[in-house]
Amino acid sequence: MAERGLRAPAWLEELVRTSPPPVPWRDVVRFAVTVPAPLALALVVGGGAALGAGVFGTTGALAASLAPQAGPLRDRLRRTAAAVGFGAVGLLAGQYASGGGWLPVLVVALLSAAAAVISAVNSAMSLGALQLLVYTALASGLVTSLPAAAEVAFFFAGAAWATLVTLVQAATEPSDPDRASVAAVFTRIAALLTAVGTEGTDDARRELTTALNAAYDRVIRTRSLAAGRNRQLSELAGVLNAAAPLVEAAVASVRAGVPADPHDVTAVHALAAAVPGTRELPAERPPALEEGPAVRRAVRHGVRLAWAVVGDPEERAGAAVPALRLPWRDRLRDLADRTLGSPDTRDFAVRLTLCMTIAEIARQLLPIERPYWVLLTVAIVLKPDFGSVFTRAVQRGAGTLLGVLIGSLLLSVLPGDAWVVAAMAVAAGLLPWARGANFGLFSVFQTPVIILLLDLAAPGGPGLVGARLVDTLIGCAIVLVAGYLLWPQTWRAPLHEALRAAARALDGYVGAAFADDPAERRRARRRSYRALTELHTQLQRRLAEPPPISTRAAAWWPVIVQLERTSDAVTEAVIAVRGGEPAPDPAQVSVLRRAIRGLEDDVRAARPPDDTDTDDAQILAEGVLAPVAREVDAARRLVRDAAPGRRPETAVPGA
């Protein structure tokens, strides 16, 4: 007890916890060379105009360098185009957001509302919306001798330089990221089969789910370019679909505790090596198993199916998934539902507009130096798809504090501009590594880059250090109060909605599991496990909040584990039916689905149990459905135990 008394609160430990990410050496070199290059060229040319051009060139290079993330080249270019395009709009709009009066307030408010709606379109547009606000804030306070058109032109020139370097890096990458993502699925299947009977099965299954989500996102959702490329992506999608029986069999093996045949593990590793072309797949696939446990025979059957598709070009072409193209009216309707028609988007638009408006008023009224940093802080922190607002505000404040100290120390000791550019190269090179850790560490190295850049454009005195820190703290305070504390629904809704979404996906999986449509069963299983992945993500975000939010989130952890067990039980039942067990009666399936919908109602009600609550799905279920019903009943009991007003100590691990 004494040792525990010396420890920090669990939510604070979660807030600062990070695992050292691997060093992406290729990205490190790209950032270190690309970002400071325009500024270095301007210093060589000399003159005030050249320096201004170098500053905006480096600004464009920074935006275009930060935009791409791991994935297919077309996705990287799409994110780069969104970041650079909206950043240029922000540079122009920022000319009208400077000075005093109500016009800058109106401009900032309108741009904030537009950015919130744009963020809901997709991840690339979300990044673009962030750059719109960031460069609006920068342009409102950064004054140079260049005309606005020249600033934007040099910004585009720097972005074009960074994009060229990104293309060179992509052309020299050792492997196709699409094929690598599919190969990773087979690698994770082999890891799960190896982990059967050990304590690592839960982690191995979650890693398999993550790999499946990433592979489908990269392959299926992005195959819409040239015909040749489209055919290759369609075939890779067919490989993923052909792997579905093997995935189901591996999950069932874990549930049954039956180790896989070592030959099957070796065969899955061979599939993983054959997909990216690392090694040729042997012509003879493993023979069928006629004896042994049903799940072991199911694993061998799944291996043989995947082997036939991966190893035979004709089979692979036959398994290719045609791209689904919705009519333009349906696409517009879906876009409207995700933007203006979404209550979450409208709520976020109000929060973002409120916070940015307060920040703009503070910029005009508070006697602080370079006050546009307040706008920058609010725009970066209040991003809905970047994780917990509270976490980002705290990490941003702490990271910027350290970054300001580092940047200011460098400015005080470096003897000349050339050394400043060298220090900027080092800090920029650390950005891709820090981005993989957490938002605070990223701010530690991003802040010196910006400080060094802006100091060359508009040198400041020693007081700028304290002013920068004060601006950051003001921005974080605005977000915490006006964007967080005033909206209690944001403390709870994401986790509860994720729980209900997981229950709905589980209901759909049970409905499709015993139907005669294998493709729909495969899609339903994928939706169920994807919903569980999102549920884990929301839980980790909530655990980094202060009490009582983190303690309430921790109470749901046993429920999440039980939902995973229930999905695995459905998969095991599918394998059992495929192995010869009688298919369940449709009436019993309906009873089980009614119990799962009751589980969703329990999450929505979030109330302690009473005398009207019954858990009788197990009593009414027979055959392969009995284990599933047992897991559903256990999940319902755990949901009601986790409700406010009845939270036993055993239901709150880590609180």
What does this structure look like?
It is a single chain. With 655 residues, the protein is mainly alpha-helical. The chain has helices at residues 2-5, 10-16, 25-34, 37-45, 48-66, 73-93, 102-119, 123-141, 148-171, 177-195, 201-219, 227-242, 244-256, 262-274, 294-311, 313-319, 328-338, 343-365, 372-381, 389-413, 417-435, 439-457, 463-485, 489-513, 518-543, 549-554, 557-578, 586-605, 617-620, 625-641. Helix 13 packs across helix 27 (557-578). The chain is globular, with a radius of gyration of 27 Å.
Short description:
With 655 residues, this protein is mostly helical. The protein has 30 helices and no strands. Helix 6 runs parallel beside helix 8 and helix 20 packs across helix 22.
In terms of DSSP E residues, the strand content is under 5%
What is the 3D shape?
globular
Helix content: over 70%
Structural class: mainly alpha
Q: In sequence order, what are the helices and strands, one letter per element?
A: HHHHHHHHHHHHHHHHHHHHHHHHHHHHHH
The average pLDDT value, as a whole number, equals 77
**Contiguous runs where pLDDT drops below 50 for at least 5 residues:** 1-6, 221-230, 315-321, 645-655
